[in-house]
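Each record in this resource describes a single protein on a pair of labelled lines. An example record follows, reproduced without changes.
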Amino acid sequence: MAETVHSPVITYMSMLSLLSLCPPFVILLWYTMVHADGSVLQTFDFLRQNGIQGFITIWPKPTATACKLIACYGLFEAALQLLLPGKRVEGPISPQGNRPVYKANGVLAYVVTLVTYLSLWWFGIFNPTVVYDHLGEIFSALIFGSFFFCVLLYIKGHLAPSSTDSGSCGNVIMDFYWGMELYPRIGKNFDIKVFTNCRFGMMSWAVLAVTYCIKQYELYGKVSDSMLVNTILMLVYVTKFFWWEAGYWSTMDIAHDRAGFYICWGCLVWVPSIYTSPGMYLVKHPVNLGTQLALYMLAAGILCIYINYDCDRQRQVFRRTNGKCYVWGKAPSKINASYTTETGETKTSLLLTSGWWGLSRHFHYVPEISAAFFWTVPALFNHFLPYFYVIFLTILLFDRAKRDDDRCRSKYGKYWKLYCEKVPYRIIPGLY
């Protein structure tokens, strides 16, 4: 089990808080967006007047319709993950010396998903507005179903781990929260984290973005320019993600964080509900931005997404060519680092210190947060809640940057110290 960044007490209290507070927050956010005009104060007043009974009234029961929608979607994505052709991709070597193998068919799965979804709507076979109309029930079913799924992952980690990159830290709550296995699989070919993180979580982001657009069209007979900016930017971002999916398999989420509540429940529930929330708000709150302002927001958002992509591309090319490439037209600046694995092997890595990665050690988080702002700002500033995702993302990425820095410091030792001397800022050049 990887060491935690924060003290054991803070880590333990954070886990308990997230385990207990995240599920009800998903429901409260949905209720506020859909039934309380996006107003946090309106929801607060309702709960203040009605107490716990009011909250019970708000929480929708998982219905058969919601469960069928989730099951059909999940089985469809699982089938695409297994059956669609894709290039063989090897992930990074794990701490125990294992190298996971993936089938990179994310782009094809993404195209098939959206084409199928829109075709079902276009030909009158299925109306996506049903998803929006049962959204609370869907989130409720996901909350309980995903929690049960994480329990099964915990049991699997004890009884039938998929690789030697597994084990208990001795604390049941920490094992459940952080996970027992790094690379849990069903059989040899079905990777569970690829399914939860990519094919269910990220794919649902695109599906729900389209759903909100269609629902607004049904309500008002047109789609507002604010909704178009939001939907286009979200789809561009998710498209970028699947284009770069093989690179994602080398990031902290897949290569370092185990499959537990934090990652799997988060991707199955938090991503579809929280990440899509600006679009959820815009369904009933269309804003007329005007062509010029809408185009400015769209262009700024696309630029941020491109820079975020180019940061990852730059590092991928650098790693793939073993540093024998050009970064911004010049030979890259780099540090030759060595480290020792848990099995005692000595290995080497190249640390890029030029290009985007010379500006700060996690500069790619800057355009990612900025992109989230630009697909949220079409909602303007009548309510605070649409900006929750931007705030959450900022906290998440700043914490992730610290966790990654601490992990690299432990891994590379003196080489990481040298890297930090060459690239002194963690995220924001000149500030932090």
In short: The first strand starts at residue 87 and ends at 90.
